[in-house]
Amino acid sequence: MTVPSKTKDFEIAIVGGGIAGLVLALALHNRGIPITVYERSAKFGEIGAGVSFTPNAVKAMKICYEGVYEGFERVCTRNMWSSKLQTYFDYVSSYEEGKVVDETIAFSTTTSLGQNAVHRAHFLDEMVKLVPPEKCIFNKHLINITQAPNGRQVMHFGDGTTAEADAIVGCDGIKSRVRATMYGADHPCVTPSFTNKIAYRGLVPMEKATEAIGAEFAQNAVMHLGKNGHILTFPVAHGKTMNIVAFHESDGNWEDTERLTKPGRREDALRDFAGWSDNVTKLLSMCEEELPIWAIFDTGANPVPSFVKGNVALMGDAAHATSPHHGAGAGFCVEDAAYLACLLQSPAVQTSEDLAAAFQAYNDARLDRGHWVVQSSRYLGKMYDWMSVEGNDMDKIATELRKRNAIIYDFDVEGGIAQSVAELEAKLGKSGKK
Ligand SMILES: Cc1cc2nc3c(=O)[nH]c(=O)nc-3n(C[C@H](O)[C@H](O)[C@H](O)COP(=O)(O)OP(=O)(O)OC[C@H]3O[C@@H](n4cnc5c(N)ncnc54)[C@H](O)[C@@H]3O)c2cc1C
């Protein structure tokens, strides 16, 4: 597809080049909307771990830009058994006080697309290939935003340089600096909150995993539930690797809120999951000896009051950082990007004067859904760890989970965007200010 030549009289700065920033960059660039991405690191990069996308996110990828979806398809891994191609996760109960549990599948969740997982770095590499290099500026750590006398936004970077744009989209993650400049450093929404969960993450060769726990549980997505913790696994890298994430209730506060990881060891994980099923012990035993401990933070205690202020907007984790229990945070980045790109593409949005209305329409459409997923994910974290009213009753867990999942997977992304664009056009007039 050829990129349409410049279609708008404004330029958008995207701060941060993670999944949110890069998908937005591709969605805007391929609509002929001028962009520049400012990334604080020397190059784009993601950690070596898995991330999975649900049907709503896959639909949103196609809306953003077909190339995003094609890149995703190239690196996507699904459940490896054909009988499980619609299964999202099989759920097993992996803990019983004082007993060795023999794991069997208690229930399964399904989606129209089953499980769709990627190795984060592989997916990001696919996106990076598609973004024109001249649109990306590295080593630009945003510190502050001010307004020029002509109304343009001025970004101030850590290296003492500045750059201007008509509008800024903060895609700079959970500790967003853009959010801090919008609300002031002392506003509660600036500081993310510890959800009291920690996680251990591992990638192990699939051959080894299959030998250890058997083909069915190794080669398809499984969620092991128990007291104060849960472990999820799914295949990535076209089935060559198994992604493991083990969540556990923390036994104390996270002292250093500046750092979201601290050094840990495999023994720590084995101690946390002592007395669980043999499969769980085997999974953790396969992880690296040095196993960093991740603190799970979110924006749930102090949600951001609005994702926009004038010509500055927040997207992805900068707007609504969620704990990972719904497996939806990255998918919501893509949904956000699809909304913003379609709103900005509307003929009603022509000059920088129209941007505030477009951003407001984005906020109106995304705020409640963004905040909901953060709270619902917190609930799932408790439910999976048998700390909610459902207790260890797997039937009750299944019922509650299916109800919440449907809100994510069955979301009508196209319909929602069409409505939002129509409302904006009604406000601005079909081809710019009424
Ligand atoms: C354990 C775990 C498992 C998860 N699993 C899933 C899953 O299965 N499915 C799912 O959908 N989601 C999942 N998520 C959530 C998902 O990872 C995030 O929602 C998503 O990666 C957020 O992307 P982002 O681009 O908004 O932020 P980030 O990935 O944090 O990217 C922010 C970017 O901005 C840059 N940056 C930061 N500050 C500045 C600055 N001041 N100036 C310039 N650049 C800056 C950073 O260097 C980075 O490149 C999981 C999260 C965790 C922790």
TrEMBL record:
Keyword Acetylation appears in the UniProt entry: no
Keyword Transmembrane helix attributed: yes
Keywords: FAD, Flavoprotein, Membrane, Oxidoreductase, Transmembrane, Transmembrane helix
Sample GO molecular function, one term: oxidoreductase activity
Source organism superkingdom: Eukaryota
Entry's transmembrane regions: 12-29
Pfam family, any one: FAD_binding_3
GO biological process, one term: secondary metabolite biosynthetic process
Residue span(s) of domain FAD-binding: 10-376
PANTHER family documented for this protein: FAD-BINDING DOMAIN-CONTAINING PROTEIN-RELATED (PTHR46720:SF3), HYDROXYLASE, PUTATIVE (AFU_ORTHOLOGUE AFUA_3G01460)-RELATED (PTHR46720)
Protein name per its UniProtKB record: FAD-binding domain-containing protein
